[in-house]
């Protein structure tokens, strides 16, 4: 049985599963398997953090660009209104 992560199916990590005399799994093998899974989760968490940081940087960049566009449109609109008033004063 595997786990679904994103769009890809991952097989469970299988360590050196040594069985005890009672038929259970060796505690050392389970501990090693847990350590491997913790390392894997740590790597995935690091990847997600890097992705969210990249998204944040991109969003900030796009907000900055939009702010510049808005300032330019406001400046052009103001200039247009001033020019229209001057034209009206001269020709109206």
Automatic annotation (TrEMBL):
Say if the entry is tagged with keyword Cell membrane: no
Source domain of life is: Eukaryota
Every T-SNARE coiled-coil homology domain range: 28-73
Query: Which BP terms in the Gene Ontology apply to this protein?
Result: protein transport
Q: Which InterPro entries match?
A: T_SNARE_dom (IPR000727)
Keyword Transport carried by entry: yes
Tell me which UniProt keywords the record has, alphabetically. Answer: Protein transport, Transport
Q: What is this protein called?
A: t-SNARE coiled-coil homology domain-containing protein
Organism equals: Ostreobium quekettii
């Amino acid at each position: 049985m595997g786990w679904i992560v994103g769009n890809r199916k991952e097989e469970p990590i299988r360590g050196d599963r040594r069985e005890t005399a009672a038929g259970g799994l060796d505690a050392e093998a389970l501990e090693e398997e847990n350590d491997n899974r913790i390392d894997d989760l740590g790597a995935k968490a690091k990847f997600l953090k890097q992705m969210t940081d990249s998204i944040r940087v991109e969003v900030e960049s796009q907000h900055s660009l939009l702010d510049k566009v808005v300032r330019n449109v406001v400046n052009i609109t103001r200039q247009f209104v001033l020019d229209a008033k001057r034209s009206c004063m001269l020709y109206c």
